[in-house]
């Protein structure tokens, strides 16, 4: 798949019109249509910007953008103890062009779900920095219990956390934020999964100063903040996006 086809496919998958994508990257709508038609080749910088907002950065280092998460969380809750860094402000500027946020970065009325989805697009759950996959020998709740017994800090997210906020589908992918991965491995007796192996897994993601903020205890387990869980479900796999919709009240 060449770049033009890749951009067109990803734009449609992200539910964006050519005009919206153009606004996000600050070019004329005709530029996007000409790029997708193959009649114009974008500069590397423009191609990188397009792919960044579509959640597929060019090159091997296509990791999740933590600034998008911070920008989304701050837009929804300006009282969070987070700095509006240059990267955060860059996301606000992009989102302001499609009226997701106002000039001050706060979410526009009625745009909460779209904002969380856009942040998730740039920060897929499987691409978080420092994340480690393990063999699925325990459920997320069992892991949470083990970490509690060891006195370790953590926060459930993904489908397990979604089910705690609003009971729904079963657990598909246990994901936990943890303060110390090495200590969590020891406490929960986890075994690393071969990176070439596909299928079920348990994933630990280190605290990053954003995703673990405002976590709360529900039914005996520590859970990431509701906005973070919705964002992570949108950025997850399979039916996790449906769970995000359920939490937003858009379905069920």
TrEMBL record:
Q: Name one GO molecular function term.
A: DNA binding
The lineage's top-level taxon is Bacteria
Q: Where is the HTH cro/C1-type domain?
A: 7-61
What Pfam families does the database record attribute to this sequence? HTH_3 (PF01381)
Question: Which SUPFAM superfamilies does the record associate with it?
Answer: lambda repressor-like DNA-binding domains (SSF47413)
Against PROSITE patterns, the record matches this protein to: HTH_CROC1
Please give the name of this protein: Transcriptional regulator, XRE family
Organism listed in the record = Xylanimonas cellulosilytica (strain DSM 15894 / JCM 12276 / CECT 5975 / KCTC 9989 / LMG 20990 / NBRC 107835 / XIL07)
Give the organism's phylogenetic lineage: Bacteria, Bacillati, Actinomycetota, Actinomycetes, Micrococcales
